[in-house]
Backbone:
């Protein structure tokens, strides 16, 4: 922490650096596992996908790989206090929040636009499990539970974005202070030096021809003294 910089907090008392460290570590770990499993399933000869399923799996695996790389950058940035890496992580979280909001709102609108019969049919999806069939009968409860869960996730994601952005601003302030201190330390301190080997009375005896008010003898110090 640079001198004079106030450490930003989250959850009232914890430094934001801890949040970025833990969050990026957990996200890059989970994204790496998911990406690895998806790529293994796509490339393995034991798993057979049709055209659409394979395309969807490749797209999702690619997104998880990108997320893994970005979260790894955020984790490294929190360790070495790199503003550029943490800023990249912060921007990615903001884009993910926007994408989540867009897809979630579309899903909510689609869910509430279906009639009760259509919703039940899609929910059951041909299942023969009686418990699942019974659960699909609670249409209104399911709609509001799903909507509440999505809103809760958005609020958590938004708070995480705010916390990470706080750490980016803190790193910007630290870099600014460090740059200022470095600039001051590299400068040459002025040292008093004597102008020359000139007697202190020489200026009075031989004044220079300059527009100086008291260089004239009539205005000089002591000109009005009585002999």
Residues:
């Amino acid at each position: 922490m640079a001198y004079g910089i106030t450490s930003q907090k989250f959850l009232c008392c914890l430094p934001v650096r801890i949040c970025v460290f833990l969050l990026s570590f957990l996200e890059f770990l989970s994204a790496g596992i998911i990406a690895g499993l998806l790529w293994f399933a796509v490339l393995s000869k034991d798993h057979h996908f049709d055209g659409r399923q394979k395309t969807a799996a490749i797209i999702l695996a690619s997104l998880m790989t990108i997320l893994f790389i970005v979260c790894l950058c955020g984790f490294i940035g929190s360790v070495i206090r790199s503003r550029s890496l943490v800023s990249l992580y912060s921007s990615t979280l903001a884009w993910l929040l926007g994408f989540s909001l867009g897809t979630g709102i579309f899903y909510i609108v689609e869910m509430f636009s279906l009639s009760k019969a259509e919703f039940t049919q899609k929910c059951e999806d041909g299942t023969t499990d009686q418990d699942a069939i019974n659960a699909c009968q609670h249409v209104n409860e399911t709609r509001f539970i799903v909507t509440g869960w999505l809103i809760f996730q958005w609020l958590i994601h938004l708070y995480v974005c705010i916390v990470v952005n706080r750490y980016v601003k803190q790193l910007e302030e630290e870099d600014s202070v460090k740059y200022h201190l470095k600039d001051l330390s590299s400068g040459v301190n002025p040292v008093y030096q004597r102008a020359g080997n000139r007697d202190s009375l020489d200026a009075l005896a031989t004044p220079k021809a300059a527009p100086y008010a008291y260089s004239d003898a009539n205005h000089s110090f002591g000109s009005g003294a009585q002999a």
Summary: The first strand starts at residue 9 and ends at 10. The mean pLDDT is 77. Residues 31 and 68 are 5 Å apart (CA to CA). The two ends are 71 Å apart (CA to CA).
